[in-house]
């Protein structure tokens, strides 16, 4: 005789107890992480423009609040992100490099910062991935006007001779806010494409690149162009785009020391590239250890090439082993980003291509603001709506 309980009653345990249900990563109607990610999107423009080197503080603040509001259990959502394996391997190799580094206490502090940023960054990316479709759309509605405002403020700042960036940073480097603006524009455009606003998405991407055209922005403009080509190809040929992006990135990583030593064009695009290449040749297998290569790469005046290539910095500190792990990371990120509808995959692969070019030509590997910016932007890219995955 049926008791009207339906399928649930048929699987109930003796004594009327229902079987336990998994509640891991179940956040209810409106998870607190959604509001924290919206706050992160809102704060990205003023921090990125006025104090871009404080992106690390922004990451730690939002990541810490996210951890306190939802101390999660279970590693399933993290294990599904297979690109985290080479990321963890890279972090482990950085830690091991401390044994042969001459960076002393500063190197240890750098490793601890990198580990903390990685932990909070992975947490935010995981939270963003696990949001529901409508929550992701809400996040997009916060991010899009933020990036538009960022473009407007950036243009005003450049035309008016940097009055905004001078508020908190007297010696503001235009490459720092420009990098953050370019990276944030990709997930914002992805949200616009997803909501069937392709014209606005293209205008936003064009604006984010054109407002930066000019002297001392060659690397940013190059990254903008390469990212656009990768995104366009990914929209129609995602698997081929992922393969090309992975293979070209690996070749470029392994060829970086040779190109830096031989090519005058590369040396103009990579400040300090020749000094870094010479230091790499002294110990190419294991590198000089985290922080150990800075003194070796300093010129006769003792000036360090802080704005040198991130790829060369990894070669210098971690050797060919670190370069190989980085190549695996970029390749796995490329193949993780090609799935899904055209809009999110185009935005993700465009972002990855642009970020790689910026890392190759523009910035040092262990600057905390750069690492934090990558994780913040990666969280927004992970939150792009993807109906094939979240049904």
Strand and helix order:
HHHHHHHHHHHHHHHHH
Whole-number mean pLDDT = 81
Show unreliable segments. Answer: 1-27, 297-306
| Number of discrete helical segments | 17
Helix % is 55-70%
- For the record, the count of structural domains works out to 1
Main beta sheet: strand number and arrangement?
none
Structural class: mainly alpha
Counted beta strands:
0
Query: What portion of the residues fall into strands of 2 or more residues?
Result: under 5%
> What's the end-to-end separation, in Å?
36 Å
Rounded to the nearest angstrom, the radius of gyration is: 22 Å
Overall 3D form: globular
Descriptive tags:
391 residues, mainly alpha, 69% helix
Structure, described:
It is a single chain. By secondary structure, the chain is mainly alpha-helical. It has one domain. 69% of the residues lie in helices and 0% in strands. The chain has helices at residues 6-10, 32-50, 55-69, 76-79, 84-97, 104-129, 133-159, 175-194, 198-210, 218-236, 238-262, 264-269, 273-280, 293-297, 310-337, 342-361, 368-382. Helix 2 runs parallel beside helix 7, helix 5 (84-97) packs antiparallel against helix 6 and helix 15 runs antiparallel to helix 16 (342-361). The longest helix is centred in the C-terminal third of the chain and has 28 residues, at 310-337. The protein starts with 5 loop residues before the first helix and ends in a 9-residue tail after the last helix. Keywords: Membrane, Transmembrane, Transmembrane helix.
